[in-house]
């Protein structure tokens, strides 16, 4: 098991003390990161004590510690999951070869692009959410937001460590650029478009953490299979933290639906009391699910094929051995694509369909979540249900981007789409209404009227725990 | 003993009920008897969606879906995994069939 150094200026289990050059480089980057946090992180809350989880190790006996901390003093560390000395490449063209402890020259650019793209999303989401705490529906939710934010900051550290350690001067430049690009900055925006718009309501935040962070989970899971061992181990550990982020979203939407169902059951129009109508929640789900699906990239992708063949990026849970052929050769993936006003089946070599396969795993996961929400609605004895929109609906990337589909995935005309668009996707009026519901609640244990309370507090704390201490 | 993939649910509800502890106990046991995972892999799984019946543990490709598992059930589950007994029927058939079928569909990848 690796040795954890918590006394170092940068907590780590990667032996920074033995690599003075790397330590100095990262210590030079650290003040810029703190400045970025103060300038671009959650506004106006840097002086308050927040009850936060901090990663302190990677062992089986618990990897996190809870305590009050002022966010700029958070101990952002570098942690890699423990390695397996016997691990071999387990998919693609090089099955059975030793995994890489260094970056092979021929894959340097591809790997760097993967790491930079992943890394860029981490600070981007913090920037997108920087105003949200001002309208937190409860102290517990405010704490959850800050937890997500500081851990996305730690994920940036994880990627910056890889860039500094394995990519020389280019990597250091890329690490600096992570702090120079900003979400929504017209001159220097974040790389992926979904990370360039502010998330200014909690309905958006919970949708983002349910669906967009879940895309992140699948990308990280694919990288966790990587033959480049430091990347695989880094992303494996990030997935521990990411699970909480997705749970925050899944439970958050579940609590909104629960509150709405309670109101419907007692015969109250949710809008009359500043809560969320069911059709409005569905519109937000439609928007965020489809926007998140776009992040998977094209269903037919030679880039994805090359990443798989070379061992850089595997399929979801590849290492569990659930796939028939770890080389993914001689099999085609069947894809239904639009051709004029009809759908035709097209076969794509499986390797080129790696993004589509990853998206399928994502859709299955999202279906499970929606089923769970609906079971709660059923238990509350209301008729309303929510649904997961088809992966064809409202897409801006991939094979469905140039055609029009309804949320059930049926091919329709553009006129038909335009006619119904306002009933499928949030309008300005909807967005203004949701914004009008956002009122801050800071009294411990109290909640805004549009959301049900948590079932229980984090780390076994009572629900009226003072998660954030204001001074 | 055939190759088996054992998933211990690590979703929010199962985790609160102590699935992490069950995972560790199974892992420690099989690290000892099958250190190179030649016959059995023990893995965490984010959530099966059978939250009300947690803690859930599944075995693939046998398609055994154990629910309401407690620490006291582990010896029987281990005996089953080691091929010395049939599945522990008091722990099966607890989740809705669609929840169970959903997982098998995902694991029975055509690829």
Would you mind describing this structure in some detail?
Helix content of chain A is 45%, strand content 8%. Chain A is mainly alpha-helical. Chain A has a single domain (16-469), classed as Ribonucleotide Reductase, subunit A. In chain A, the strands form three sheets. Chain A has a three-stranded antiparallel sheet with strand order 2-1-7. A two-stranded antiparallel ribbon of chain A has the order 3-4. In chain A, strands 5-6 form a two-stranded antiparallel sheet. In chain A, a hairpin with a 2-residue loop joins strand 3 (332-339) and strand 4 (342-349). The longest helix of chain A has 37 residues, at 229-265. The radius of gyration of chain A is 23 Å and the shape is globular. The two termini of chain A are 41 Å apart. By secondary structure, chain B is α+β, with helices and mostly antiparallel strands. Chain B has one domain: Glutaredoxin (3-Layer(aba) Sandwich), CATH 3.40.30.10. Helices cover 35% and strands 17% of the residues of chain B. Chain B has four helices and four strands, in the order βααβββαα. Chain B has a four-stranded mixed sheet with strand order 2-1-3-4, with helices on both faces. The model of chain B has no long low-confidence stretch (mean pLDDT 91). Chains A and B meet through helix 6 and helix 9 of A and helix 4 of B.
Question: Could you list some keywords that capture this structure?
Answer:
heterodimer, A: about 475 residues, mainly alpha, Ribonucleotide Reductase, subunit A, three-stranded antiparallel sheet, two-stranded antiparallel ribbon, 11 helices, 7 strands, about 10% strand, B: about 110 residues, alpha+beta, Glutaredoxin, four-stranded mixed sheet, 4 helices
């Amino acid at each position: 098991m690796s040795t954890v150094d918590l006394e170092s200026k940068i907590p780590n289990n990667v032996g920074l003390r033995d690599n003075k050059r790397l330590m100095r480089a990262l210590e030079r980057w650290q003040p810029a990161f703190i400045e970025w946090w103060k300038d671009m992180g959650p506004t106006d809350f840097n002086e308050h004590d927040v009850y936060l989880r901090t990663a302190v190790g990677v062992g089986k006996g618990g990897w996190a510690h809870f305590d009050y901390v002022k966010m700029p003093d958070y101990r952002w560390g570098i942690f890699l999951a423990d390695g397996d000395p016997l691990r071999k490449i387990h998919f693609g063209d090089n099955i059975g070869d030793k995994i890489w402890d260094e970056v092979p020259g021929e894959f340097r650019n591809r790997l760097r692009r993967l790491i930079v793209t992943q890394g860029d999303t981490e600070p981007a989401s913090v920037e997108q959410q920087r105003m949200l705490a001002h309208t937190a529906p409860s102290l517990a939710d405010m704490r959850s937001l800050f937890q997500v934010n500081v851990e996305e900051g730690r994920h940036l550290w994880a990627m910056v460590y890889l860039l500094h350690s394995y990519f020389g001067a280019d990597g250091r430049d890329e690490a600096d650029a992570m702090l120079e690009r900003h979400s929504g900055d017209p001159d220097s925006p974040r790389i992926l478009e979904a990370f360039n718009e502010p998330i200014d309501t909690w309905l958006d935040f919970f949708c983002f953490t349910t669906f967009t962070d879940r895309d992140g989970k699948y990308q990280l899971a694919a990288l966790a299979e990587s033959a480049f061992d430091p990347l695989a181990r880094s992303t494996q550990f990030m997935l521990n933290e990411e699970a909480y982020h997705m749970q925050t979203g899944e439970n958050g939407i579940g609590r909104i639906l629960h509150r709405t169902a309670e109101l419907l059951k007692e015969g109250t129009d949710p809008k009359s009391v500043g809560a969320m109508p069911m059709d409005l929640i569905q519109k937000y789900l439609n928007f965020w699910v489809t926007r998140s699906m776009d992040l998977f990239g094209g269903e037919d992708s030679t880039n994805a094929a090359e990443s798989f063949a070379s061992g850089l990026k595997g399929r979801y849970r590849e290492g569990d051995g659930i796939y028939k052929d770890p080389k993914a050769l001689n099999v085609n993936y069947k894809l239904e694509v639009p051709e004029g006003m009809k759908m035709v089946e097209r076969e794509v070599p499986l390797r080129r369909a790696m993004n589509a396969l990853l998206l399928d795993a994502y859709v299955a996961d999202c279906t499970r979540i929606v089923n769970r929400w609906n079971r709660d609605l059923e238990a509350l004895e209301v008729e309303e249900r929510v649904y997961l929109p088809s992966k064809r609906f409202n897409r801006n990337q991939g094979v469905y981007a140039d055609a029009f589909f309804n949320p059930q995935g049926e091919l329709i005309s553009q006129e038909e789409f335009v006619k119904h668009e306002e009933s499928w996707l949030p309008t300005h009026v909807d967005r203004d209404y949701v914004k009008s519901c956002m009122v801050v609640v800071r009294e411990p244990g109290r909640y805004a009227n549009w959301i049900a309370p948590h079932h229980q507090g984090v780390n076994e704390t009572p629900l009226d725990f003072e998660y954030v201490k204001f001074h | 003993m055939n190759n088996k993939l054992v998933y211990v649910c690590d979703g929010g509800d199962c985790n609160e009920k102590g699935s992490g502890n069950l995972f560790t106990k199974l892992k420690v046991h099989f690290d000892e008897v099958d250190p190179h995972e030649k016959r059995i892999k023990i893995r965490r799984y984010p959530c099966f969606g059978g939250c009300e019946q947690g803690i859930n543990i599944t075995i693939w490709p046998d398609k055994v879906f154990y629910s309401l598992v407690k620490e006291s059930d582990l010896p029987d589950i281990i005996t089953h995994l080691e091929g010395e007994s049939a599945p522990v029927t008091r722990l099966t058939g607890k989740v809705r069939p669609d929840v169970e079928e959903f997982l098998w569909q995902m694991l029975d990848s055509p690829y």
